[in-house]
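During the reporting period the student researcher (J.K.) took over the structure-prediction task from the postdoctoral fellow and processed the backlog of single-chain submissions. One of the processed entries is reproduced below for the supervisory committee.
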Amino acid sequence: MVISTLADGVTRSVEAVGDTISETFFEPVIRLGVTGLARSGKTVFITSLVANLLDRGRMPGLVANAEGRIEAAYLQPQPDDTVPRFDYETHLGALTGPSPQWPDSTRAVSELRLSLKVRPSGLLGGLQGPRTIHLDIVDYPGEWLLDLGLMDKSYAQWSEEALARIANREEAVAFRGLVKEIDAAEALEEPRAKALAESFTAYLNAAREAGYYGCTPGRFLLPGDLAGSPVLTFAPLPDQSGMPRRSLWREMERRFEAYKAKVVKPFFRDHFARIDRQVVLVDALGAIHKGPQAVEDMRGAMADTLEAFRPGSNGFLARLLRGKRVEKLLFAATKADHLHHQQHPQLTAIMQALTRDAADRARFAGAETRALALASVRATTEETLRHEGRELDCVRGTLLESGKQAAFYPGDLPEDPSHLLTPARDGAERWLDGEYQVMNFAPAKLTLKPGEGPPHIRLDRAIEFLVGDKL
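J.K. obtained the following structure tokens:
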């Protein structure tokens, strides 16, 4: 195992050296990872980002575009022949068609290469011609990213944490009952192992629907072609000393280790470890609406997720010596169009507070971080209405469930994020000072002028932070 790991590391280092030299002296490549927890809008983000880089009329915050230095942008085949292409055209058609609808969510890794022809800035602009910069956008489910936190855990440790987490959750009643009926020291019987795995998977799906975020293993939720395989047929069990060989507990332990070695590690090696810049999308408003427990669970999931990043500088020598590292991290609270712009600073402050620990670690390692409230595609308009003698800043849009137009006031977010995070940490079951509502809006019908991408909120600032220094 040690020799294999060392050999794999040497191979990756050699590949990194080749990539570094190629990118330094020829056409630079920026690998941008896009992930997020459930319903955070990853597919919409990538679709709108690509559309707005191809037609840049709504991107004044992208400095290279404002200075007129981006001469052209075009899509090319992605360089990884074994990775599915992000289905940009289909997703854009869903958003911009006569009956617009939100595109399907991310269920596997996909990739898209957008190439930009950019003139250098400053004095070099008059001496050199434009150069080509490749932006490789890698889309992967946040559920898979959570699994990276399992790499340093034993089966016993993971089981203890998982069982403690679900001890009081209604969604886990059936699974807890099944665990009580089983003697983990008995010999493995495959139907029993399958029943445990299926019951635990049912809990994970119910927990995600209820607003919980720390739902690992992630492939239980998105199994793909691994559905029904032994590597996905395990579940947490109470640890007991002296478990015999061939017992149910030992087989669960073996399958947990196989999951890490054959599912989690290849994902890290083939995709995650090659990323230069990363955006993490979070539906913070959805968690706030579901209550303090959902907010705390999301904060814990974010902390576990961000421990997987290897932040730091990607200078030439640094990359030769230790491989690529994520050098810029953007934490984006999505669906900002569900709030009046007056509340966007509060949403940004909440995002900063939720990711404070992870952001501090990243900055200490040499990476740049930023928190931002954005909307990848704006689905609402703003208006101020009078209600019971007071003016309310509302948003108006088409309700996803009924198709009817409605004006909506979600409630005021607190100026101080601790008013939300403190009760969440203390285990409160509901907010004491108010309820925060969320509506699901359908995408608005779009009439785009030539040269314009879909309307958005701060998407240009997001991409300027992520890749503006390379343009």
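The committee noted the following: Strands lie at 29-36, 70-76, 110-118, 131-139, 277-282, 328-333, 368-373, 381-387, 390-398, 405-408.
J.K. will present the remaining backlog at the next meeting.
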